Amino acid sequence: MATDRPDGRLRSAGTSPAAGRDGEKRPRAPLWAKLITVFGAVLLLASTGTAVAATYLLGKVTDNLQTTDSVLGAGGGVGAQTGGKLPDGAVNLLMLGLDTRAGWEKSGLGSRSDTIIVLHIPASRDKMQMLSIPRDTYAQIPADEELHFGGSSGRINGAFMYGSQGTGGWKGGMKLATKAVHDLTGISFNGVVIIDFAGFKDILEALGGVRMCVDQRMWSSHYVVDGKGKISYAKGADPTSPPSNALWFEKGCRDMKAWEALEYSRLRHSANGDYDRQRHQQQLLKAMAKKATSNGVLTNMSKLSKLLEAAGSSLKIDPNGVPIADFFFGLKGLANAEMMPIRSNGGTYVKAPGGAEGTSDETKALFAAAAADKLDAFLLDHPKMTINSTS
């Protein structure tokens, strides 16, 4: 019962737009364009034509984003050795998504990183493998003298909150969250990227929404529908069962507005809980990549400019000592590559202390394979860990 009508009224499931032609093949977008879309943007640099155009587009992003070198440069193996440039071998990037809603100035401090994705690009450069880490994963959160944090254990999404408290800010949150993920996975990173909820919505709006496929009927704990079919944001506590006026997302494929697509990617009231949420988030990223690399955006400088401005203002990056322009340009040659979502624990719940989620031996082996750039061989032996997401 979600809506894309301008008057905000609900449309019945039977009047949803058609899903498109089955079996239709579309050209793959370059992986480097997809990769930046995962960060919340797309840098269509060299492929846009002239060097002048490429420089102009890069400036739209770099003029607005915030950077730091204090996270991966802090030592302890968290940052990969790069020598000031992206390596020719495997590249590992960490994405942290924050549900701040009101933006950094009002609510950035104390936020939890509710989306944690390790982006592994193998040395072969033929795919991007997306390893989602459940936000409730039980982890050791390391002590940090600079942040005046004595260490703790619990849900991994709390690491960002602990690091950002006091004077730590977003850099402290990024630092502690990255250390926690590194300690859990053994992976050293070539870059860390933060994007907040509000920024993601700005990027989706700049894209004009995306096409999404709902694979099971689900309800929203954030939006409700009144007697006239008007949708509004729900007040009060997050319910555990659907209220009588709940907003439902019906099965089927259709074009979604920015807020709809973002809300769908956050739903977790289903049989598989947070694993369905991870899968829907990865589906949204793929849909954004597809829309951002479509001719309607590529050939429209005004749309492209707005998209990149929204992306830049939404991002916070530690490029691990690589100049930011070189960091982005270093990804542009990854053509004809594939996005491959991967689920930890094979999509099943592993019990851990305090109601958190554990990490299976199989998932520990998955992380080790990614750290050693042997993920392809591992997945051949563990095919159930890949996700056939709806797109």
From TrEMBL:
Annotated TM spans: 35-58
Bias class Basic and acidic residues marks the residues at 1-10
Alphabetized UniProt keyword annotations: Membrane, Transmembrane, Transmembrane helix
UniProt region (Disordered), positions on chain: 1-25
Task: Write down the Pfam families for this protein, in alphabetical order.
Answer: LytR_cpsA_psr
The protein's matches in Gene3D superfamilies, at most eight in alphabetical order, are given as:
LCP protein
Segments forming domain Cell envelope-related transcriptional attenuator: 112-293
Q: From what superkingdom does this record's organism come?
A: Bacteria
Q: Name the family the entry cites.
A: Belongs to the LytR/CpsA/Psr (LCP) family.
Mind telling me what this protein is named? Cell envelope-related transcriptional attenuator domain-containing protein
- To which species is this protein native? Actinoplanes awajinensis subsp. mycoplanecinus
